[in-house]
Design brief:
Rhopdopsin 7-helix transmembrane proteins, two-stranded antiparallel sheet, two-stranded antiparallel ribbon, 70% helix, 7% strand, transmembrane, transmembrane helix, membrane
Length: 306
Amino acid sequence: MALKQFPLDRTFLVAAWLEAVLYGCFLCVFSFGVYIQITSNKARNTHNRVMFIISIAMFLLASAHVAMNCFRLIRGYAEFVDGPGGPVGYLGQISRWDHIFKDTLYATQTILGDGAAVYRCWILCNRNYKFIVLPSMLLVASIMSACMTDALFITIPPSESIFYPRLTHWITTFLHGCGSAEHNHHWSDGVSTLADRTEDGALSSLYLFIEILLLSLYSVNYNAQYILLEAVTPTVGITFGMITIRITLRSHREWQLSQTEPGELRGGIQTIGSVPMRRIPVKITQQIQDDARSGGKNSSMDGISS
């Protein structure tokens, strides 16, 4: 039984709304990541700095992408409402400059996310290059297919859609390459700890799920793929931002432990939250009664305990 197509005019509205919601989530994650970076400046290392720079680039790309979607939505439903095909005729025309620019932002964000995953894999594998050969090849394939897709957009007739036969091969290759690179990042890693693989994999599961679902919907020419397509750009940023925050917090914790005196570690200093508890001197008075040996006399001992 064939899927009933979701109306394109509603599809573009829902897609823009979902991207705006996810972008708001990304904004919160990015802001918290900046705060963590500022407050943990003494615990920074080269790996943390690279991850933070990539996070900034992703935020800028996501901001430009949501702004372009807003621009296109206003033009489509306000300026082109009475034009040929109405809003759908404008928003669905993939050869327009604003669509090509928006798609380029999406492809760049996805490739940057996959490149960051390969870099993260290389770090976790103690900089052993043999573990990133396959992910790197998939990354190169994604870059080539993205460039070919954007180049073909210019030559597509205005009446054709994203499901044009000349495009499907390159778009499918791009989506498959992105999903495979993300998968191999987690499971080709044989040197990193199980905790690192599990935590990174859990944070990336949402992004991987959206990519697989997007590929499935595009393969059956279903219009709802537009909704997931617009959700990818902020989702990549959210995923990477959460991983960056986790890495920074762990580095900060390790730095704190390195600054602790060995004697204090052995003594087991207790804390309330992050505030260490101070020793308080306590005066103890003991009163001992020995009727048999002292004839009923009382003796007292004073001491200081801490």
